Amino acid sequence: MTVGSPTLRAVFLGPPGAGKGTQAQRLAKEHRVLHVSTGDMLRQEVAGGSDLGRRAKGFMDAGQLVPDEVITAMLLARIQAPDASRAWILDGFPRTLPQAHSLDRSLQAEGIELSHAVDFEVPSDVLVQRLSGRRTCARCGSIWNVHSKPPRQPGKCDACGGELTQRADDRPDAVSKRLQVYAAQTAPVLDHYRAKEILVEIDADRPPEVVYENLMEVIAKPAG
Ligand code: AMP
Fold first, then answer.
1. Are 57 and 68 in contact (CB under 8 A)?
2. Is 185 left (phi over 0), alpha (psi -120 to 50) or beta?
3. Does residue 5 register a pLDDT over 70?
4. Cα 56 from Cα 73, distance rounded (Å)
5. What percentage of residues in the chain have a pLDDT greater than 70?
6. Which ligand 1 atom sits closest to the C-alpha of 93?
7. C-alpha dihedral over 27, 83, 12, 190, to 10 degrees?
8. pLDDT, position 167
9. For residues 22 and 222, what is the distance between their CA atoms, to the nearest angstrom?
10. Does residue 127's CB lie within 6 angstroms of at least one atom of ligand 1?
11. CB–CB of 37/24 below 8 Å?
12. Which of 21, 34, 92, 111 would you label with 27, given CA atoms 20 to 30 Å apart?
């Protein structure tokens, strides 16, 4: 399969816990696609103690969105970097209509078109279960789940032996807040891409390998 012709420029949408990150990681590894996760970028800023990280942390821990101007500046700078001239996927951006409009303007100025907006659909009761069981490797970022994808040794990453941690925003209060925020602020972004005829919907309430096969099918052809 070629994801480079025409070049894949996709946004991955869907509620927290829908598996966007897992699918994006695999696609990036197997097809030399740049994976840009705004959540991962922010967590790195927080871990590094930067000004941006300090500004973002309170919003993130409470399950709220980081202000549009902060996240948009960070994301647009990332996709203008030299290594972003190849195929890419944006995982977790845009999450509001103003973010989607900023991305449109920036891409238009560079003569780039989004190829696909992929919406990973999962019912909310399944999301709560997935998020509460999710553990992330502090060292390599691999994602595990104590219910559905447990590591061989509890608390340790199978891939690199790093320590598995629970994100502060995967705790119950923050999870329900994030699902509310998604419904109020991010769901309208789907209509934006539907109107542009690049939205493709994937049933993500299936095993990850089945979802991945479906993803391969949808990105192998033009959206719409
Ligand atoms: P994620 O790992 O994608 O679930 O993102 C974790 C957290 O980072 C979110 O709950 C937000 O607080 C923040 N975040 C990530 N992407 C965005 C975005 N596009 N807009 C605003 N906040 C974001």
1. no
2. alpha
3. no
4. 13
5. 97
6. 19
7. -150
8. 87
9. 23
10. no
11. yes
12. 111
Distance between CA atoms of 119 and 88, rounded to whole angstroms? 16
Distance 1 CA to ligand 1 centre (A): 31
**Dihedral of CA 151/17/177/68: which sign?**
positive
Instruction: Give the residue with greater pLDDT, 173 vs 188.
Output: 188
Q: Enter the tokens of residue 182.
A: 């998604």
Please give the Cα distance from 122 to 116 (Å, whole number): 19
- Cα atoms found within 13 Å of the Cα of residue 172, Cβ hemisphere only: 0
171: its two tokens: 């705790």
Does the annotation mark 26 as catalytic?
Answer: no
SS3 state at 203: strand
The pLDDT-based confidence of 223 (bands split at 50, 70, 90) is confident
- Cα distance between residue 47 and residue 62, in whole Å: 17
Q: How far apart are the first and last CA of the chain?
A: 19
Q: What is the pLDDT of residue 192?
A: 97
What is the per-residue pLDDT for 4?
46
Tell me the C-alpha distance between 135 and 145, whole Å. 6
